[in-house]
Amino acid sequence: MKRIVILVSGRGSNLQAIAQRCAAEGWPARVVAAISNRPGAEGLEFAASQGIATSTVDHRQYASREDFDGELARVIDAFAPDLVVLAGFMRILSDGFVAHYAGRLLNIHPSLLPAFAGLHTHQRAIEAGCKVAGATVHFVTATLDHGPIVAQATVPVLAGDTPETLSQRVLAAEHVLYPLAVRWFVEDQLLLDDGRVRHRAGQSQLLAC
Ligand code: GRF
């Protein structure tokens, strides 16, 4: 049984999608904890309602990023995770933290990386006139929104889209993509080779939503 710890900062809809699929599809895994850097994050309420352990490490209580990351890692490691999933976790992580979880730290970013790393991805995609947008699940490296790509989902950008309408379409795709990528990880289906990720059985790592 693989142990999954999920980090959130807010709403937690991806946490919810992953926890629900994990239970419904009988993955060889369990979401053992949800941890937030924001007290009262909505995502923790859902986790608690499912009997998942919750914890908060409030970044405002720490003098430096390294201090916060050190305490966060201590709390995470108490749950002995095989996989740490960033799901709307709005903190830049220190190099030491990322190195500690190398190969077992996943993130989802609401763009087709390497395009539009950082914030305001939907607005930037619309302003650039993109006809396609999407989301990317990737292993986390020390560079923000960067790292070996596990899977991507695409959605069309429609005439008249606003950042809100586009974000809703992308989020719906995220809720399919992220559980799938996490499932592949816990089923040992991912091969990391020379900075690229392959699915062992050759399953498509692209979802056209
Ligand atoms: C998602 O769009 C994700 O791609 C981004 O933050 C958002 C989190 O949403 N990193 P939620 O908290 O999972 O609902």
What is this structure's SSE topology?
Blueprint lengths: L1 E7 L4 H12 L4 E8 L5 H8 L3 E4 L8 H13 L5 E4 L8 H6 L4 E5 L11 H7 L4 E8 L9 E8 L6 H24 L3 E4 L2 E4 L6 E3 L1
Parallel strand pairs: 1-2, 1-4, 2-3, 4-5, 7-10
Antiparallel strand pairs: 5-6, 6-7, 8-9
Helix pairs in contact: 1-6, 5-6
Bound molecules: 5-O-phosphono-beta-D-ribofuranosylamine (GRF).
5-O-phosphono-beta-D-ribofuranosylamine binds next to helix 1, strand 5 and helix 6.
The pLDDT mean sits at 97
Task: Give me the CATH superfamily of the largest domain.
Answer: Formyl transferase, N-terminal domain
- Widest beta sheet: strand line-up: 3-2-1-4-5-6-7-10
| Residue fraction in strands | 25-35%
Helix and strand succession? EHEHEHEHEHEEHEEE
Q: Major sheet: size, sense and barrel closure? A: 8 strands, mixed
CATH architecture of the largest domain: 3-Layer(aba) Sandwich
Any low-confidence stretches, pLDDT <50, length ≥5?
Answer: none
